[in-house]
Amino acid sequence: MVTTTALEAELLALAGSVPDPELPVLTLAELGVLRGVQLTAPGRVEVLLTPTYTGCPAIEAMSADIERVLHDHGIPEVEVRTVLSPPWTTDAITAEGRRKLAEFGIAPPRPTGPAGGPVAVDLTLRCPHCGSTDTTLLSRFSSTACKALRRCESCREPFDHFKEL
Amino acid sequence: MNITATPALPLGDDALILSHRLGEWAGHAPVLEEEVALANIALDLLGQARILLSLAGDEDELAYLREERQFRNLQLVEQPNGDFAHTIARQLYFSTYQELLFNHLAATDSELAPLAGKAVKEVAYHRDHAHQWTLRLGDGTDESRTRMQRAVDALWRYTGELFEPVEGLETVPWAALHDSWAARITSTLEQATLTVPEGPRHGAWTAGAGRQGLHTEPFGRMLAEMQHLHRSHPGATW
Fold it and tell me: Which positions fall inside the PaaD zinc beta ribbon domain (chain A) (predicted)?
C-alpha cells in the first residue's frame, strides 16, 4: 500500500464527493467505486476507479466529472484509470449510501456474504415506500444493469431494487 | 491491423457477437420487461467485449473492420434470434458455459482473470434469467413447451464446440467443464419437463469451426449490418 499524503487524501475526498451520474443521490465514495488517488508527479494525479458493472456506460461520465473537479482544484493533469480487480461488490456501498438509496425509493442491496456462487434472489425485500416485506420480483433487469424491478403487494407501487453483486 | 495472439480474442468475439444478436431484440421483445432484460444482458456482454478485444488490439478496428473469417467466436452465438424460445435456449447454453469458464479463469493468474472475476458475477444473473425462462416455457402451455423443445434441439449441435480447446487456454480442464455443463443443462431441462437432446455435436459439417474462422451462413449478413455504419462513415462521432 502506498502511503497517502495529505494532498492525496484531500483530492480523494474531492473526487469522492462527485455525484454518481445515474444515481445522483449517491456520491462516488458512497458507491464505493473509488480505489485511490495518487500524485505521480507535481501537478499530475492518477485516479483509480472501478466499474460497478463491466458494461456500465456511466464510467465515462464519472471519469469526466472527476477530471473536471480536480482540474478546478488546480491539478492540471488528471488521469482516471479503470481497475477491475478485485471486482466491485454491492457490499462496497456505505451505510450512508444505503440509507440514501432507500430514501430515494430504491431498495438497497442486501449483504452478499462470501464471494462466489450465484446470489439468492428469493429472500424478502422491504418496499422503500411503505416498508412492507410483501414484495414480488417483476424482472431481474430494470432501468439500469445494476437494478431489478419489483412490486410491493401492500401499497401496489413498483420500485427498483439495487441487486446484489 | 495489429492483432495480438491472445485467447482474449475468441472470448471477446463471443461476447461481441452475442451482444449484437441480443441487441436485435430492441423494439421486438414480447414484453417491455424482457426488452429491458435482454438489452441489459447485451450491455454486460458489450462491456466484456470491449475489455477483452482491447487486450487483442484496437477494439473498434477489431469489431468493425475485420472480415467474417477473421472472427473467432463460437457458431452458437452467431445463430439468429429465432423465436423467443430460441433466444432463451442460446442464452441457457452459452451463459452456463461462460459462467463455468469464467469461474475457472478468475482463479488463475491469466491476463483474463480480472475480467473473468468481474464478469462471472453478472453472468450468474444471465444464467438465472435463462434458467427461469426455460422452466416457464418448458413447463408452460403446449405451445410454449413445443417451441422450447424445438429450440433446445435446434441449437444442440452447436454446443460441442464450446468445449474444444482454445489456443492459449491449454490449462482449462475442458472435459471437466463439459461434464459440469452437461449436468447443469440436464438438470434445468428435466426440471422444465423437456427432453435432453441427443443429436450429434461433433464432426457435422457446420458445428465446431467458429474458433477457426468458419461461420454459418447468417453470420455474414449480421456482420454487414453491424459494420455498415462504421465502414460507410469512417471516424464519425456523435
Answer: 120-163
Residues of B in contact with A143 (CB under 8 A): 36
Residue B158 DSSP SS3: coil
pLDDT tens for residues B65-101? 999 999 999 999 999 999 999 999 999 999 999 999 9
> Which residue from B98, B80, B65 is spatially nearest to B17, judged by alpha carbons?
B80
Report the DSSP pairing between strands A77-82 and A135-139.
Answer: unpaired
B114 within domain boundaries? yes
CATH of the domain at B162: 1.20.1260.10
What ipTM was assigned to the predicted interfaces of this complex? Answer: 0.84
Residue A45 predicted with pLDDT over 90: yes
Task: Check CB contact of A29 with chain B, cutoff 8 Å.
Answer: no
Closest CA to A56 of A14, A15, A21: A21
Give the span between the Cα atoms of A70 and A42, in whole angstroms: 14
**pLDDT 10s digits, B101-140:** 999 999 999 999 999 999 999 999 999 999 999 999 999 9
Select from A22, A63, A52 the least CA-distant residue to B119. A52
Q: Is residue B186 within 8 Å of B152, Cβ to Cβ?
A: no
Residue B223 belongs to domain spanning = 8-232
Over residues A134-140, the mean pLDDT reads 90
Domain count, chain B: 1
Going from the N-terminus, what domains does chain A have, and what CATH number goes with each?
6-82 (3.30.300.130), 94-162 (no CATH)
Contacts of B41 in chain A (CB under 8 A): 141
- How far does B9 lie from chain A, in Å, by closest CA? 17
Is the Cβ of A142 closer than 8 Å to some Cβ of chain B?
Answer: yes
Whether the link from the prior residue into B7 is cis, omega within 30° of 0, is no
